[in-house]
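Section 5: illustrative case.
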């Protein structure tokens, strides 16, 4: 990792995804989490304060070690045990099949290189009765905006360390063998449409 991706970008990400509006969206998305939870793309731990009391254990997967002191402080303040794994979610996850009550991704599917493989592993790890919770930004349903997303995406990849703004999140989730049980599409307040097209919801595995 370079200096920018290791020190500067994580701080920008922590700041931009930690504002009050995003906190509100996280709380809404995570309200349904329960039991043993697997969070893919843990980042700097911004979800931790928003998990409900129904969560008993959180297992996190994150390929990078970002802002370690800040993350350690947030984990220490969590109301439940947190187990950390630093590995690529698109490879084979070191967890048994059908072992988690909830799987969570927030602002993660945009960045995972082999996103279909990662979702297949999440599906494998989720119990048949489990719930997949997602809060993601992605492709606009407006063809004009989507074209601009496609044009700008190569630049976004560089500036935002692999983030993609043009992935059709709902279709990717469905193609991975999940059936959405709830889906909210909206524009994140205060964010340009090209970057703020949001997908929030839940799904079950087929």
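Designed sequence:
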């Amino acid at each position: 990792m370079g200096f920018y991706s290791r020190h500067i970008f994580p701080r920008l990400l922590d700041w931009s995804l930690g504002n009050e509006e995003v906190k509100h969206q996280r709380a809404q998305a995570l309200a349904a989490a329960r039991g043993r939870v697997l969070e893919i793309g843990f980042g700097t731990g911004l979800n931790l304060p928003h998990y409900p009391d129904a969560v008993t254990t959180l297992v996190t997967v994150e390929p990078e070690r970002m802002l370690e002191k800040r993350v350690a402080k947030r984990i220490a303040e969590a109301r439940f045990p947190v187990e950390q794994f630093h590995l690529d979610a698109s490879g084979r996850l070191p967890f048994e099949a059908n072992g988690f009550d909830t799987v969570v991704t927030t602002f993660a599917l945009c960045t995972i290189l082999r996103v279909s493989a990662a979702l297949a592993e999440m599906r494998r790890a989720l119990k048949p009765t489990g719930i997949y919770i997602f809060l993601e930004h992605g492709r606009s349903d407006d063809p004009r905006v989507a074209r601009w997303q496609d044009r700008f995406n190569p630049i976004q990849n560089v500036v935002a360390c692999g983030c993609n703004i043009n992935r059709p999140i709902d279709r990717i989730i469905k193609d991975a063998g999940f059936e959405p049980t709830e889906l909210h599409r909206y524009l994140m307040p205060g964010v340009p449409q090209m970057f703020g097209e949001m997908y929030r919801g839940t799904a079950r595995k087929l």
